[in-house]
Amino acid sequence: MKSKQPLVERVFHGVFFTCGMMAVAFAVGITVYLVISGLPAIAKVGPVEFLLGQTWNPGKEQFGILPFILTSVYGTLGALVLGLPLGLLTALFLSKYAGRRSGRVIRSAVELLAGIPSVVYGLVGMIVLVPAIQAAFSLSSGATLLAAILVLTVMILPYIVNVSTTALDAVPREYEEGSLALGATETETYFKVSLHAARSGVATAIIQGVGRALGEAMAIIMVAGNVANMPGLFESVRFLTTAIVSEMSYASYGSLHREALFSIALVLFVFIILVNVALNLIARKKED
């Protein structure tokens, strides 16, 4: 048995290394493909006109995606503003306050939210939320940026709650006991010590939430109106993702229109990378 152990270890080492290299290869392949497919349209239209233009009209070959960029940014920030406090407070309750029975019920509900397909969120939002917003604010249509923000808030909650709860559970009990021994209350200890110690996990939760919000398409296209307007809270809008989904099916192969849609995908990809890098740098800086 002992003579076979090194061989077994080498085999598993090779398997793990291969899996890791495959993940890297997939990431590199996607990056290269998006760059090759997305740069031609940006070069033809012009980077300034493409990124800062406010008119999207494929029939006249006008491809300005500033409304899509701002809508995606505002929608993601709005979802984080609403979802992050709610998610962190829920995670604190689950990790530090909840009893066994109540904690089990809430965890089950959070897991259920994570497992619901995007199209179901969009369907419920279209049937319930959109008419409610239309009636509440006397709008001609309730399919607005506000509806998209509310749907995204619910969709990113499971990611923030689950990751933050795991990070809070991993905080050494000695940190909290030391804080309590110095006279701090439990609330002060959990907010100032536990959350601070779990900040890297919270940053990971934010990254996952941002990625989910930026990358969502199916639910958003059902509640946001899918109109290429400059973003307004009560305006029908179009996100970067919904622009690709709504027009890719009829964009002709080899046309500038289709190339521009790949360019939108490239811009979205760069956005997600920049957000991940920025949040990771902030988390590491705080740890230092």
Characterization of this structure:
A hairpin with a 4-residue loop joins β1 (56-57) and β2. The longest helix is centred in the N-terminal third of the chain and has 41 residues, at 5-45. The chain is mostly helical and 288 residues long. The mean pLDDT is 88. It has a two-stranded antiparallel ribbon with strand order 1-2. The protein has twelve helices and two strands. 34% of the residues are buried. α6 (145-169) runs antiparallel to α9 (199-215), α9 (199-215) runs antiparallel to α12 (256-287) and α11 (240-247) runs antiparallel to α12 (256-287).
Number of helical segments? 12
* Spatial ordering of strands, largest sheet: 1-2
Ends apart, CA distance between termini: 46 Å
Low-confidence stretches: none
Measured on Cα atoms, how large is the radius of gyration? 23 Å
Integer average pLDDT: 88
Task: Sum this structure up briefly.
This protein is mainly alpha-helical.
Record the SSE blueprint.
Layout: H1 5-45, H2 47-52, E1 56-57, E2 62-63, H3 66-97, H4 100-115, H5 118-136, H6 145-169, H7 173-181, H8 186-197, H9 199-215, H10 218-223, H11 240-247, H12 256-287
Antiparallel strand pairs: 1-2
